[in-house]
Design a protein that fits this description.
The chain folds into 3 domains: 141 residues, NADH:ubiquinone oxidoreductase-like, 20kDa subunit (Rossmann fold, 3-Layer(aba) Sandwich), CATH 3.40.50.700; 38 residues, no CATH class; 100 residues, no CATH class. The chain is built from 12 helices and 10 strands. It starts with 9 loop residues before the first strand and ends in a 26-residue tail after the last helix. 36% of the residues are buried.
Length: 337
């Protein structure tokens, strides 16, 4: 049985924005440590677990919630409203997971516009039978009243692009051990790092901690998908011609993907000295290509499938690129709805 902390229980909230739900599951993955959480915190808002409405949150005094784990990107007006509301009601707002931190997988939608997405879904997809090209409406009047849907934004945003964020806990999802470390530090009253810092991660890159052997030689003559090679389990993935985001990704996850012979995906985000993970990754790859002529190098690079989607898998909204800009808007590129 977990010991009861002498301090008053903290009030904890968890919210799920534009995300897959894995971050919420990771909160439950503490297993028996759940008793430590329950002994030290009262859950006051978690839509997937508690029957508490948005109106109940709106009625709370400002700063009434001690900690909110906000997972998910900002995809629509509901996400934006809840980000602002929870910021108002919370002392410590944590961007929990890759989607809140950097935009995550939902952020890849920034490679298309809202119009292109809706055209694909409601008009062009192979399974769509929609001869009238009907699309969702934000408001629709029925005799009982007005039905509403959230506004679908043109841009996917990070949490920090919407409200002030106190801390970031990266990962897809964050490692349970890191969550417990941060949670218990808050509960115990330990001195936390300055606001705005990434918690549960180190300042090193994945490559610095990776146990695989590296030769620092130009070895890439061709790129492969992981299933196309006979991985020896010991040699650096990049030296085998398999894309691995280790050079552009901070450590802290325990390199678990590498441990099960899978290349790093980049979910922990860039190291502190990396301005743009995609640019860093392209630079790292360029130094390893074994080609003497521009034609040879171009041929090797042709095997890189979807470089934007791979190099910015978790970070497109937070990157220098941020999104695909339509030609008619390239002269003015602020965040749009």
């Amino acid at each position: 049985m977990a010991e009861r902390n002498e301090r008053p229980k903290i009030k904890l909230a968890v919210y799920w924005g534009a995300a897959c739900g894995g971050c919420c599951v990771s909160v439950l993955d503490v297993h028996e440590k759940l008793f430590d959480v329950v002994a030290n915190a009262d859950l006051v808002f978690w839509p997937i677990a508690l029957d508490i409405k948005y109106n109940d949150v709106e009625a709370m005094p400002d700063q009434d919630i001690d900690v909110t784990l906000f997972n998910g990107a900002i995809r629509n007006s509901e996400n934006k409203h809840m980000a602002r509301l929870l910021r108002q009601k919370t002392k410590i707002l944590v961007a929990y997971g890759s989607c809140a931190h950097l935009g995550g997988i939902p952020g890849l939608a920034n490679l298309s516009t809202k119009t292109e997405i809706f055209d694909r879904i409601y008009k062009e997809s192979e399974s769509t039978n929609n001869p009238n090209h009907t699309r969702p409406l934000e408001k629709y009047e029925v005799k009982e009243g007005t039905l509403t849907l959230p506004e679908f934004f043109n841009d996917v945003r990070t949490l920090a692009q919407t409200v002030d964020v106190d801390y970031y806990l990266p990962g897809c999802p964050p490692q349970t051990e890191r969550l417990l470390e941060v949670f218990m530090a808050i509960v115990s009253g330990d001195e936390l790092p300055p606001r705005g810092k990434v918690l549960g991660a180190t300042d090193k890159s994945q490559c610095d901690e990776c146990p695989r052997k590296k030769s620092d030689k130009k070895t890439i003559k061709e790129f492969h998908r992981p299933w196309e090679i006979n991985d020896d389990g010991e040699t650096c993935f990049l030296e085998q011609g398999v894309l691995c985001m280790g050079p552009a990704t901070r450590s802290g996850c325990g390199h678990r993907c590498i441990e099960v012979n899978a290349p790093c995906r980049g979910c922990y985000g860039p190291a502190p000295d990396v301005i743009d993970p995609g640019a860093k990754m392209m630079s790292s790859v360029a130094t390893m290509i074994d080609g003497d002529t521009s034609e040879t190098i171009e041929k090797i690079l042709e095997n890189v499938i979807d470089p934007a989607g791979y190099f910015y898998r978790f970070s497109m909204p937070a990157s220098i690129l941020r999104r695909k800009i339509p030609e008619n808007l390239q002269a003015q590129a602020p965040l749009q709805k």
